[in-house]
Structure formats: C-alpha cells, structure tokens
Write a structure and sequence with these properties.
Elements lengths: L4 H8 L3 H8 L7 H14 L5 H8 L4 E6 L5 H16 L3 E6 L3 H10 L8 E4 L5 H8 L5 E3 L8 E5 L2 H14 L5 E5 L9 H15 L9 E3 L4 H12 L7 E4 L2 H13 L9 E6 L10 E4 L2 H17 L8 E3 L3 E3 L14
Parallel strand pairs: 1-2, 1-3, 3-4, 4-5, 5-11, 6-7, 6-8, 8-9, 9-10
Antiparallel strand pairs: 10-12
Length: 339
C-alpha cells in the first residue's frame, strides 16, 4: 500500500501538519527535523498529492522563470540554484527563454503565465510596460538583475562597488594604461554594463588618469567575445598594461588572446574579472567574487516566503556581499617606458 502523510508523521514522531510544512519548504520546522522527515518520506515512498494540495490551496505549485539567455553561465547558475529551492518545496518551474526581441514581445503581449504560476522570477530587466504587465498577474515577483523596481523583490549586488575595487586594485599596483572589456551588447535593458563602465570611469578620474576610448572594447559577455576584445586592445597604438573585464568569461577569453600573442598575465598585461566563475581559481584569475548561486536561491526563498506569508511586507532590495579575490593574473607593470 502507498504510504500516507500520517505514516510519515508517526515514523518521525511529529504531526501530519509538520510533515506537510517540511516537505513544502514552509517555515516553522527546524533543519534537523526537516531533513529527518525528508529521509523517512523517501524511505517509505511517500509523495504529497499535488492535485489535493492545489485544490485545497488554490495554487498551481508552479513558478514562472524568465531568462534572456538560458545557456549563459550566470543565468544558468542562478536558475539552477533557484530551481533546487523550488523543487525542495514541491514546486515545478515553467521556464521561458526570451532571448530574441520577437520571443520577448510575444510573451509580454500574450502573458502565457497568467493563471498558470504562483510567482515569477525574472532574470531579465523588464521595461516599464513589461513590468506593469507582470504586476497585473497579481503574483509575487522577484529578480536578481538590475536595481530597485516597484512591485519586485530584488536580490543583487552593488556593481559599482565591485568594479571600483577591481579598478582601484590595478591603480594601486601602479598601472596607468587600464583597459576595459565590457558587455555593451548584453541583454535588452541590462544596466550592469552601464553601472560597471561608469564606476571604471570614476576610478580613472579619481586617480587622475585620462580616459582613452581606444582602451575600451565590447566582449559580448562571452569567452569568444573577450578574446576578440583583448585582441583589439592589443592592437592599439599604446596598448594597456592592465585590463578590467566585466565578467570572468570575458577575462578568460582575454587570457586566451594573450597566450595566442605569446604574452603572459601578469608579466605583460594584468587581468581582473568579475564573478568568481567556477573556473576562475583554475586559471588563477584575480576577480570580484559575487555569490551567483546564492542570489538565485535567496530570490527563490523570498518568493516562497511571500506565498506562505502574503500579508507580510516583502523586502524591496536584498544586497548580497562581494569581495575582491587576489590571484595570479595581476601584478605591478614591468618597467618599459611611459605607462
């Protein structure tokens, strides 16, 4: 016979309601008890009835997730972490990959998530009309990109502070020719490249370094783009002695370009990235570490909390910690004439 919720409760020594809260990821259950309940439920083969829960609560037990690029490392990492939290709480994920303008326009015109999801996690930055459309769904909304937005809980980092720490590190090492590989052609309405570029320019001005447009190149937030951008910077009449890349993937592309030109980091060019990608330590990349997976998990937890506590005041903005991680790709410039 199929095990019931009462069988699990009796085996663990708790009430059926406690079993229900634990398996749905709801508050009020300690981690120890939650783990014990999950283990016993798996052992007995108990699975909560989705249809019964939906009828009782009026929920779909589905979360809509909007992404601009499902194949990019940042978005994939956020999505994976969020999905794990949703899954542990008994929710499915309905994924919409809105990378092209046509797909995005069609989604916001038809809003196929209406009455199909209990909440929406948006990993793209909606414009005003798109934000209004999402708010009209009447469900909790969260995002891990962009700044504060009415109706959304935003989990993110301070892009300016992170960039300032990276560029100041290069300035403090003695570099004066500091280039930047940006992501100007990133997702639609993405503010991250703008915020990081402004911080880069501010630090240069603060250090009395004149900005040279020839030391900026677009890397498209990809390894291939970073390699292409670094090759462009090396072709400048006065190439940089150091480069800040707005993402680790572009920084890795920059390192590959240096190798192909028989140059080394940091002997010939220092390189700093941003993210602390899982391969950053492997290549010894100095970078600004941000908790990418944790942002996705926290956004998911906050959405579930809003579903469980609809009358509670949702946080408007949750800022996650960042830090500069020093590795082997940065050093003072070698003496070789004017920098």
């Amino acid at each position: 016979m199929t095990a019931s919720i009462n069988d699990v409760a009796q085996a663990v020594g708790v009430s059926a309601s406690t079993v229900s809260r634990a398996l749905r990821g709801r508050p009020g259950v300690s981690d120890e008890v939650r783990d014990r309940i999950a283990a016993v439920a798996a052992q007995l083969g108990y699975t909560a009835s989705r249809s019964a829960s939906s009828l009782a609560s009026g929920r779909t037990y589905t979360i809509g997730v909007l992404v601009p690029y499902v194949g990019r490392w940042f978005f994939g990492t956020v999505l994976d972490a969020a999905e794990q939290v949703f899954s542990a709480a008994g929710y499915d994920v309905l994924l919409y990959n809105l990378g092209s303008p046509e797909t995005r326009k069609r989604f916001f015109t038809k809003l196929p998530v209406r009455k199909r999801v209990d909440a929406v996690l948006s990993l793209l930055i909606p414009e005003d009309e798109e934000s209004a459309a999402l708010r009209s769904l009447g469900v909790p909304l969260a995002t891990t990109v962009g700044g504060a937005r009415p109706g959304f809980t935003v989990v993110g980092i301070d892009d300016r502070v992170g960039t300032e720490s990276a560029v100041r590190h290069l300035v403090n090492l003695g570099h004066r020719r500091i280039g930047m590989i940006s992501g100007a052609s990133g997702p639609l309405h993405w503010t991250t490249p703008i915020d990081r570029r402004n911080a880069y320019l501010d630090v240069l001005a603060e250090a009395g370094i004149e900005h040279d447009p020839a030391l900026e190149a677009d890397g498209d937030y990809t390894v291939e783009g970073g390699e292409r951008a670094m090759t462009e910077l090396l072709a400048a009449s006065r190439p940089p002695t150091a480069v800040f890349a707005q993402s680790d993937e572009m920084a890795m592309g920059a390192l590959r370009a240096l190798r192909r030109h028989r140059l080394k980091a940091p002997d010939d060019v220092s390189v700093v990235g941003f993210d602390d990608h899982e391969l950053a330590d492997v290549v010894g990349l100095t970078t600004v570490a941000q908790p990418v997976a944790e942002q996705g998990a926290e956004a998911a937890r906050l959405l579930l909390r809003r579903l469980d506590e609809p009358d509670a005041e949702p946080p408007g903005h949750v800022q996650m910690p960042i830090r500069l991680v020093l590795r082997e790709t940065t050093a003072p410039p070698r003496p070789r004439g004017p920098q």
